[in-house]
Amino acid sequence: MNITVEKLYEMRINNEPHTLLDIREVHELEVCSINGSIDIPMNTLPENIEKLSKEGPLVVMCHIGGRSAQVVNWLIQNGYNNALNLEGGISAWAQTIDSEMAQY
Q1: Distance between CA 45 and CA 74 in Å, rounded?
Q2: C-alpha to C-alpha distance for 62 and 5, rounded to whole angstroms
Q3: Treating both helix axes as pointing N-terminal to C-terminal, what angle do 89-96 and 5-13 enclose, rounded to 10 degrees?
Q4: In degrees to the nearest 10, what's the CA dihedral of 46, 51, 56, 59?
Q5: Active site amino acids
Q6: How many alpha carbons fall within 13 Å on the CB side of residue 55?
Q7: Strand residues in 1-104 grouped as ranges (E)
Q8: Nearest to residue 34, comparing CAs of 100, 93, 99, 104?
Q9: How confident is the model at residue 104 (pLDDT cuts 50, 70, 90)?
Q10: Which of 64, 25, 29 is nearest to 44 (CA)?
Q11: Do 39 and 46 meet the contact criterion of CB atoms below 8 Å apart?
């Protein structure tokens, strides 16, 4: 299941309940991030899965959407039917929603 950056932006400005999970590495987070995200690098998810809620949308984000798509599939296999892949990742967010955000 996917979600667009426009839909995520709409959810955020309307204060709709959701969790934004950023699975990028620390060096990527240092370049840019979205306020309020839960930052858990992809390779540490298995030992941190209990930090994630199965309630409400769980939007998974990476750089361009490939890693997050893999994580969404893994989360669904582990009972997180609320997991959504952010199409285009933070790159699409920077291009479409926040043009002042640093990009890499």
Answers
A1: 10
A2: 12
A3: 70
A4: -60
A5: 62
A6: 2
A7: 2-3, 19-22, 38-39, 58-61, 83-86
A8: 93
A9: very high
A10: 25
A11: no
Write down the pTM of the prediction: 0.96
Structure confidence by residue, pLDDT tens digits, 40-78? 999 999 999 999 999 999 999 999 999 999 999 999 999
Say if residues 40 and 51 touch (Cβ distance below 8 Å): yes
CA angle in degrees (0–180, nearest 5) for 98-82-53: 90
Residue tagged 């298995």 (tokens): 46
